[in-house]
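Trying the structure run again after the queue cleared.
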Amino acid sequence: MARINENYRKLPAGYLFPEIGRRVAAFAKANPSAKIIRLGIGDVTLPLAPAVVEALRDAATESGTASGFHGYAPDQGYDFLIEAILEHDYRARGIALDADEIFVSDGSKQDSGNIQEIFGTECRIAVTDPVYPVYVDTNVMAGRTGGVDEKGRFAGITYLAGDEENGFVPPPPGVALDLVYLCSPNNPTGAVMTRTQLEAWVAWANARDAVLIFDAAYDAFVQDASLPRSIYEIEGAKRCAIEMRSYSKRAGFTGLRCAYTVVPKGVEGTTASGERVPLRALWARRQSTKFNGVPYVVQRAAAAVHTPEGRKQTGEQVAYYMENARSLRRGLSAAGFRCFGGENAPYLWMRTPGGLSSWACFDELLSEANVVCTPGSGFGSAGEGYVRLSAFNSRENVEAAIARIRKAFEGRA
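Done. C-alpha coordinates:
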Protein backbone atom coordinates (compact mmCIF):
# COMPACT_ATOMS: atom_id res chain seq x y z
CA MET A 1 0.00 0.00 0.00
CA ALA A 2 1.36 3.42 -0.96
CA ARG A 3 2.04 5.67 2.04
CA ILE A 4 0.63 9.16 1.85
CA ASN A 5 2.36 12.41 2.76
CA GLU A 6 0.81 12.77 6.20
CA ASN A 7 1.72 16.45 6.38
CA TYR A 8 -1.33 17.10 4.20
CA ARG A 9 -3.51 15.82 7.03
CA LYS A 10 -2.36 18.63 9.28
CA LEU A 11 -4.20 21.10 7.05
CA PRO A 12 -7.86 22.08 7.42
CA ALA A 13 -10.20 20.01 5.27
CA GLY A 14 -10.43 22.57 2.46
CA TYR A 15 -8.60 25.59 1.10
CA LEU A 16 -10.30 28.89 2.00
CA PHE A 17 -11.68 29.91 -1.38
CA PRO A 18 -13.20 26.55 -2.37
CA GLU A 19 -15.04 26.59 0.97
CA ILE A 20 -16.41 30.03 0.17
CA GLY A 21 -17.46 28.75 -3.24
CA ARG A 22 -19.23 25.78 -1.65
CA ARG A 23 -21.25 27.99 0.70
CA VAL A 24 -22.15 30.46 -2.03
CA ALA A 25 -23.22 27.65 -4.38
CA ALA A 26 -25.44 26.14 -1.67
CA PHE A 27 -27.04 29.51 -0.98
CA ALA A 28 -27.59 30.20 -4.69
CA LYS A 29 -29.23 26.81 -5.16
CA ALA A 30 -31.57 27.43 -2.23
CA ASN A 31 -32.26 31.02 -3.33
CA PRO A 32 -32.30 31.01 -7.15
CA SER A 33 -33.76 34.52 -7.41
CA ALA A 34 -31.06 36.13 -5.25
CA LYS A 35 -28.84 38.58 -7.13
CA ILE A 36 -25.50 37.76 -5.56
CA ILE A 37 -22.69 40.32 -5.70
CA ARG A 38 -19.29 38.69 -5.37
CA LEU A 39 -16.68 40.74 -3.53
CA GLY A 40 -14.93 37.69 -2.13
CA ILE A 41 -12.25 36.02 -4.26
CA GLY A 42 -9.89 38.53 -5.85
CA ASP A 43 -10.61 37.70 -9.48
CA VAL A 44 -10.67 40.47 -12.07
CA THR A 45 -13.87 41.29 -13.97
CA LEU A 46 -12.85 43.71 -16.74
CA PRO A 47 -11.97 42.19 -20.15
CA LEU A 48 -8.40 42.00 -21.38
CA ALA A 49 -7.00 45.30 -22.64
CA PRO A 50 -7.10 45.77 -26.44
CA ALA A 51 -3.28 45.83 -26.69
CA VAL A 52 -3.14 42.45 -24.93
CA VAL A 53 -5.83 40.95 -27.17
CA GLU A 54 -4.03 42.19 -30.28
CA ALA A 55 -0.75 40.67 -29.11
CA LEU A 56 -2.47 37.35 -28.36
CA ARG A 57 -4.10 37.31 -31.78
CA ASP A 58 -0.90 38.19 -33.61
CA ALA A 59 1.12 35.60 -31.67
CA ALA A 60 -1.48 32.91 -32.36
CA THR A 61 -1.44 33.74 -36.07
CA GLU A 62 2.36 33.69 -36.07
CA SER A 63 2.35 30.30 -34.35
CA GLY A 64 0.21 28.94 -37.16
CA THR A 65 3.05 29.34 -39.64
CA ALA A 66 6.06 27.11 -40.17
CA SER A 67 8.49 29.95 -39.58
CA GLY A 68 6.65 31.39 -36.57
CA PHE A 69 5.83 28.23 -34.64
CA HIS A 70 7.16 28.01 -31.07
CA GLY A 71 7.36 24.91 -28.90
CA TYR A 72 8.78 24.81 -25.39
CA ALA A 73 9.59 28.24 -24.06
CA PRO A 74 13.06 29.05 -22.66
CA ASP A 75 13.39 28.00 -19.02
CA GLN A 76 13.49 31.55 -17.69
CA GLY A 77 11.29 33.20 -20.31
CA TYR A 78 11.70 34.82 -23.72
CA ASP A 79 14.24 37.63 -23.99
CA PHE A 80 11.64 40.07 -25.32
CA LEU A 81 9.56 39.81 -22.13
CA ILE A 82 12.52 39.80 -19.75
CA GLU A 83 13.88 42.94 -21.39
CA ALA A 84 10.49 44.65 -21.09
CA ILE A 85 10.34 43.72 -17.39
CA LEU A 86 13.84 45.04 -16.74
CA GLU A 87 13.19 48.30 -18.57
CA HIS A 88 9.75 49.22 -17.25
CA ASP A 89 9.52 47.58 -13.82
CA TYR A 90 13.09 48.13 -12.66
CA ARG A 91 15.32 50.48 -14.65
CA ALA A 92 12.47 53.02 -14.71
CA ARG A 93 12.73 53.05 -10.89
CA GLY A 94 16.52 53.20 -10.80
CA ILE A 95 17.00 49.47 -10.10
CA ALA A 96 19.71 47.51 -11.89
CA LEU A 97 19.13 43.77 -12.35
CA ASP A 98 20.56 41.18 -14.73
CA ALA A 99 18.41 39.34 -17.26
CA ASP A 100 19.31 35.95 -15.79
CA GLU A 101 17.90 37.02 -12.41
CA ILE A 102 14.36 37.14 -13.87
CA PHE A 103 12.28 33.92 -14.02
CA VAL A 104 8.99 34.11 -15.95
CA SER A 105 6.33 31.75 -14.60
CA ASP A 106 2.64 30.91 -14.77
CA GLY A 107 1.67 32.68 -11.55
CA SER A 108 2.83 34.18 -8.25
CA LYS A 109 0.62 31.73 -6.36
CA GLN A 110 2.64 28.89 -7.83
CA ASP A 111 5.95 30.64 -7.23
CA SER A 112 5.16 31.57 -3.62
CA GLY A 113 4.26 27.95 -3.00
CA ASN A 114 7.14 26.41 -4.94
CA ILE A 115 9.92 28.66 -3.65
CA GLN A 116 10.00 26.78 -0.34
CA GLU A 117 11.33 23.72 -2.20
CA ILE A 118 14.82 25.23 -2.44
CA PHE A 119 15.08 25.62 1.35
CA GLY A 120 15.80 22.93 3.93
CA THR A 121 12.95 21.54 6.00
CA GLU A 122 14.74 22.67 9.16
CA CYS A 123 14.53 26.36 8.17
CA ARG A 124 12.85 28.56 10.75
CA ILE A 125 10.11 30.47 8.96
CA ALA A 126 7.84 33.38 9.78
CA VAL A 127 4.73 34.86 8.21
CA THR A 128 2.77 37.97 8.95
CA ASP A 129 -0.70 37.27 10.34
CA PRO A 130 -3.17 37.70 8.69
CA VAL A 131 -1.49 36.22 5.65
CA TYR A 132 -2.11 34.79 2.17
CA PRO A 133 -2.80 31.10 3.00
CA VAL A 134 -0.44 29.63 0.38
CA TYR A 135 2.66 30.70 2.33
CA VAL A 136 1.61 28.63 5.33
CA ASP A 137 -0.08 25.68 3.63
CA THR A 138 2.82 24.82 1.31
CA ASN A 139 5.28 24.80 4.20
CA VAL A 140 2.94 22.52 6.12
CA MET A 141 2.75 20.19 3.11
CA ALA A 142 6.55 20.09 2.96
CA GLY A 143 6.82 18.95 6.58
CA ARG A 144 8.32 22.15 7.90
CA THR A 145 5.78 22.44 10.75
CA GLY A 146 4.21 20.56 13.59
CA GLY A 147 0.51 20.25 14.29
CA VAL A 148 -2.09 23.00 14.41
CA ASP A 149 -3.53 24.52 17.59
CA GLU A 150 -7.04 25.70 18.42
CA LYS A 151 -6.30 29.10 16.85
CA GLY A 152 -5.25 27.54 13.56
CA ARG A 153 -1.55 28.22 14.11
CA PHE A 154 1.04 25.59 13.25
CA ALA A 155 3.92 24.68 15.53
CA GLY A 156 7.21 25.59 13.90
CA ILE A 157 5.96 28.81 12.28
CA THR A 158 6.52 32.22 13.86
CA TYR A 159 3.42 34.37 13.39
CA LEU A 160 3.98 38.14 13.31
CA ALA A 161 0.68 39.77 14.15
CA GLY A 162 -0.48 42.67 12.01
CA ASP A 163 -3.13 44.66 13.84
CA GLU A 164 -4.69 48.08 14.04
CA GLU A 165 -1.99 49.24 16.44
CA ASN A 166 0.88 48.62 14.00
CA GLY A 167 -1.15 49.44 10.89
CA PHE A 168 -1.15 45.75 9.89
CA VAL A 169 2.61 45.94 9.22
CA PRO A 170 4.44 44.02 11.96
CA PRO A 171 8.05 45.04 12.66
CA PRO A 172 11.00 42.64 12.44
CA PRO A 173 11.01 40.23 15.40
CA GLY A 174 13.64 39.77 18.04
CA VAL A 175 13.94 36.02 17.39
CA ALA A 176 16.26 34.11 15.08
CA LEU A 177 14.66 33.14 11.77
CA ASP A 178 15.83 31.94 8.37
CA LEU A 179 12.95 32.74 6.02
CA VAL A 180 10.24 35.43 6.25
CA TYR A 181 7.30 35.96 3.90
CA LEU A 182 6.25 39.59 3.35
CA CYS A 183 3.42 40.83 1.14
CA SER A 184 3.08 44.50 0.15
CA PRO A 185 0.54 45.72 -0.80
CA ASN A 186 -0.78 43.19 1.63
CA ASN A 187 -3.34 40.55 0.84
CA PRO A 188 -5.72 40.65 2.72
CA THR A 189 -5.38 43.89 4.71
CA GLY A 190 -4.42 46.29 1.91
CA ALA A 191 -1.59 47.74 4.03
CA VAL A 192 1.54 48.92 2.20
CA MET A 193 5.01 48.98 3.74
CA THR A 194 6.69 52.37 3.83
CA ARG A 195 10.29 52.89 2.79
CA THR A 196 11.31 53.14 6.45
CA GLN A 197 9.54 49.89 7.31
CA LEU A 198 11.16 48.06 4.38
CA GLU A 199 14.57 49.45 5.30
CA ALA A 200 14.14 48.00 8.78
CA TRP A 201 13.28 44.59 7.37
CA VAL A 202 16.20 44.57 4.91
CA ALA A 203 18.65 45.65 7.63
CA TRP A 204 17.24 42.95 9.94
CA ALA A 205 17.57 40.23 7.27
CA ASN A 206 21.13 41.16 6.33
CA ALA A 207 22.21 41.35 9.97
CA ARG A 208 20.81 37.86 10.65
CA ASP A 209 21.61 36.24 7.29
CA ALA A 210 17.91 35.61 6.70
CA VAL A 211 15.99 35.57 3.39
CA LEU A 212 12.90 37.66 2.69
CA ILE A 213 10.27 36.36 0.24
CA PHE A 214 8.67 39.60 -0.94
CA ASP A 215 5.31 39.18 -2.68
CA ALA A 216 4.58 42.33 -4.72
CA ALA A 217 1.73 40.90 -6.79
CA TYR A 218 -0.35 44.07 -6.24
CA ASP A 219 2.40 46.67 -6.85
CA ALA A 220 0.47 48.29 -9.72
CA PHE A 221 -2.22 49.42 -7.28
CA VAL A 222 0.07 51.62 -5.18
CA GLN A 223 -1.19 55.18 -5.63
CA ASP A 224 1.16 57.00 -3.25
CA ALA A 225 4.38 57.84 -5.11
CA SER A 226 6.36 57.89 -1.85
CA LEU A 227 5.71 54.19 -1.24
CA PRO A 228 8.14 51.59 -2.66
CA ARG A 229 6.90 49.38 -5.49
CA SER A 230 9.85 46.99 -5.27
CA ILE A 231 11.95 45.83 -2.34
CA TYR A 232 15.01 46.44 -4.52
CA GLU A 233 14.47 50.16 -4.10
CA ILE A 234 16.01 49.53 -0.67
CA GLU A 235 19.80 49.42 -0.39
CA GLY A 236 21.00 45.93 0.48
CA ALA A 237 17.84 44.10 -0.65
CA LYS A 238 19.64 42.32 -3.48
CA ARG A 239 21.63 40.45 -0.82
CA CYS A 240 18.63 39.13 1.11
CA ALA A 241 15.35 39.32 -0.88
CA ILE A 242 13.49 37.32 -3.52
CA GLU A 243 10.69 39.30 -5.19
CA MET A 244 7.55 38.04 -6.94
CA ARG A 245 5.28 39.99 -9.29
CA SER A 246 2.25 39.07 -11.35
CA TYR A 247 0.25 40.16 -14.40
CA SER A 248 -2.93 38.69 -12.91
CA LYS A 249 -4.32 41.83 -11.28
CA ARG A 250 -2.32 44.55 -13.03
CA ALA A 251 -3.44 43.33 -16.47
CA GLY A 252 -6.29 40.85 -15.96
CA PHE A 253 -4.20 37.70 -16.50
CA THR A 254 -5.94 35.56 -13.87
CA GLY A 255 -6.98 33.26 -16.72
CA LEU A 256 -3.93 33.65 -18.97
CA ARG A 257 -1.43 33.02 -16.14
CA CYS A 258 1.85 34.92 -16.26
CA ALA A 259 4.12 36.25 -13.52
CA TYR A 260 7.79 36.40 -12.66
CA THR A 261 10.16 35.93 -9.75
CA VAL A 262 13.43 37.78 -9.24
CA VAL A 263 16.31 35.93 -7.55
CA PRO A 264 19.40 38.16 -7.42
CA LYS A 265 22.77 36.46 -7.56
CA GLY A 266 23.72 37.97 -4.21
CA VAL A 267 21.03 36.11 -2.25
CA GLU A 268 22.56 33.00 -0.70
CA GLY A 269 21.79 30.07 1.55
CA THR A 270 24.08 27.63 3.32
CA THR A 271 24.68 23.91 3.24
CA ALA A 272 24.87 21.78 6.39
CA SER A 273 28.65 22.18 6.29
CA GLY A 274 28.40 25.97 6.06
CA GLU A 275 29.15 26.41 2.36
CA ARG A 276 27.37 29.44 0.91
CA VAL A 277 25.30 28.73 -2.21
CA PRO A 278 23.54 31.25 -4.52
CA LEU A 279 19.79 30.62 -4.37
CA ARG A 280 19.43 31.68 -7.99
CA ALA A 281 21.15 28.47 -9.14
CA LEU A 282 18.81 26.32 -7.04
CA TRP A 283 15.70 28.06 -8.35
CA ALA A 284 16.96 27.75 -11.93
CA ARG A 285 17.47 24.02 -11.37
CA ARG A 286 14.02 23.64 -9.86
CA GLN A 287 12.32 25.47 -12.71
CA SER A 288 14.19 23.67 -15.49
CA THR A 289 13.27 20.32 -13.92
CA LYS A 290 9.62 20.91 -13.03
CA PHE A 291 8.41 23.64 -15.39
CA ASN A 292 8.30 23.89 -19.17
CA GLY A 293 7.75 27.61 -19.44
CA VAL A 294 4.88 30.00 -20.13
CA PRO A 295 3.45 29.67 -23.67
CA TYR A 296 4.84 32.01 -26.33
CA VAL A 297 1.45 33.61 -27.01
CA VAL A 298 0.99 34.43 -23.31
CA GLN A 299 4.47 35.93 -23.02
CA ARG A 300 3.78 38.09 -26.10
CA ALA A 301 0.58 39.25 -24.38
CA ALA A 302 2.53 40.05 -21.20
CA ALA A 303 5.10 42.01 -23.20
CA ALA A 304 2.24 44.06 -24.68
CA VAL A 305 1.36 45.22 -21.15
CA HIS A 306 4.66 47.16 -21.15
CA THR A 307 4.03 48.99 -24.45
CA PRO A 308 2.76 52.58 -24.33
CA GLU A 309 -0.73 51.43 -25.31
CA GLY A 310 -0.63 48.52 -22.87
CA ARG A 311 0.51 50.68 -19.96
CA LYS A 312 -2.23 53.21 -20.68
CA GLN A 313 -5.01 50.65 -21.05
CA THR A 314 -4.08 48.47 -18.08
CA GLY A 315 -3.46 51.60 -16.02
CA GLU A 316 -7.02 52.68 -16.72
CA GLN A 317 -8.26 49.30 -15.53
CA VAL A 318 -6.26 49.58 -12.31
CA ALA A 319 -7.69 53.08 -11.81
CA TYR A 320 -11.21 51.69 -12.29
CA TYR A 321 -10.71 49.08 -9.59
CA MET A 322 -9.10 51.60 -7.27
CA GLU A 323 -12.09 53.91 -7.62
CA ASN A 324 -14.23 50.93 -6.59
CA ALA A 325 -11.98 50.46 -3.56
CA ARG A 326 -12.25 54.13 -2.60
CA SER A 327 -16.04 53.97 -2.97
CA LEU A 328 -16.20 50.95 -0.68
CA ARG A 329 -14.08 52.64 1.95
CA ARG A 330 -15.94 55.96 1.76
CA GLY A 331 -19.42 54.43 1.71
CA LEU A 332 -18.87 51.96 4.52
CA SER A 333 -16.79 54.27 6.70
CA ALA A 334 -19.52 56.90 6.44
CA ALA A 335 -21.97 54.32 7.78
CA GLY A 336 -19.79 53.70 10.83
CA PHE A 337 -17.90 50.59 9.75
CA ARG A 338 -14.23 50.49 10.75
CA CYS A 339 -12.35 50.09 7.46
CA PHE A 340 -8.72 49.78 6.40
CA GLY A 341 -6.96 49.40 3.04
CA GLY A 342 -8.66 50.46 -0.17
CA GLU A 343 -6.18 53.29 -0.75
CA ASN A 344 -3.12 51.59 -2.26
CA ALA A 345 -4.57 48.12 -2.79
CA PRO A 346 -7.77 46.68 -4.30
CA TYR A 347 -8.93 45.23 -0.97
CA LEU A 348 -10.90 46.68 1.91
CA TRP A 349 -10.26 45.17 5.35
CA MET A 350 -13.34 45.74 7.51
CA ARG A 351 -13.94 45.02 11.16
CA THR A 352 -17.04 42.88 11.61
CA PRO A 353 -19.97 44.76 13.16
CA GLY A 354 -21.35 43.95 16.59
CA GLY A 355 -18.53 41.60 17.53
CA LEU A 356 -19.55 38.97 14.94
CA SER A 357 -17.02 36.30 14.10
CA SER A 358 -15.59 36.41 10.58
CA TRP A 359 -17.62 33.44 9.33
CA ALA A 360 -20.79 34.66 11.06
CA CYS A 361 -20.38 37.99 9.26
CA PHE A 362 -19.80 36.12 5.99
CA ASP A 363 -23.01 34.11 6.46
CA GLU A 364 -25.05 37.17 7.41
CA LEU A 365 -23.76 39.25 4.52
CA LEU A 366 -24.60 36.41 2.14
CA SER A 367 -28.07 35.71 3.53
CA GLU A 368 -29.18 39.27 4.31
CA ALA A 369 -27.34 41.35 1.71
CA ASN A 370 -26.56 38.69 -0.92
CA VAL A 371 -22.96 39.95 -0.89
CA VAL A 372 -19.96 37.62 -0.83
CA CYS A 373 -16.94 38.63 1.24
CA THR A 374 -13.92 36.67 2.50
CA PRO A 375 -13.79 35.82 6.23
CA GLY A 376 -10.69 37.32 7.81
CA SER A 377 -10.06 34.23 9.92
CA GLY A 378 -9.30 32.35 6.70
CA PHE A 379 -6.08 34.35 6.52
CA GLY A 380 -4.97 33.47 10.05
CA SER A 381 -6.01 33.90 13.65
CA ALA A 382 -5.16 37.63 13.64
CA GLY A 383 -7.77 38.03 10.91
CA GLU A 384 -10.60 36.95 13.21
CA GLY A 385 -13.13 39.74 13.61
CA TYR A 386 -12.55 41.11 10.10
CA VAL A 387 -13.70 40.43 6.54
CA ARG A 388 -12.06 41.28 3.23
CA LEU A 389 -13.99 42.98 0.44
CA SER A 390 -12.63 42.97 -3.10
CA ALA A 391 -12.86 45.93 -5.50
CA PHE A 392 -12.83 43.64 -8.54
CA ASN A 393 -16.37 44.18 -9.81
CA SER A 394 -18.46 46.67 -11.75
CA ARG A 395 -19.11 50.16 -10.43
CA GLU A 396 -22.84 49.40 -10.37
CA ASN A 397 -22.35 46.27 -8.27
CA VAL A 398 -19.99 47.99 -5.86
CA GLU A 399 -22.48 50.80 -5.23
CA ALA A 400 -25.28 48.27 -4.79
CA ALA A 401 -23.17 46.23 -2.39
CA ILE A 402 -22.45 49.30 -0.25
CA ALA A 403 -26.16 50.03 0.04
CA ARG A 404 -27.01 46.42 0.86
CA ILE A 405 -24.30 46.09 3.53
CA ARG A 406 -25.37 49.33 5.18
CA LYS A 407 -28.99 48.16 5.21
CA ALA A 408 -28.18 44.68 6.50
CA PHE A 409 -26.22 46.02 9.45
CA GLU A 410 -28.15 49.22 10.03
CA GLY A 411 -27.59 50.44 13.57
CA ARG A 412 -24.94 47.80 14.30
CA ALA A 413 -21.86 49.17 12.55
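The radius of gyration is 21 Å. Worth checking whether this holds up in the mutant runs.
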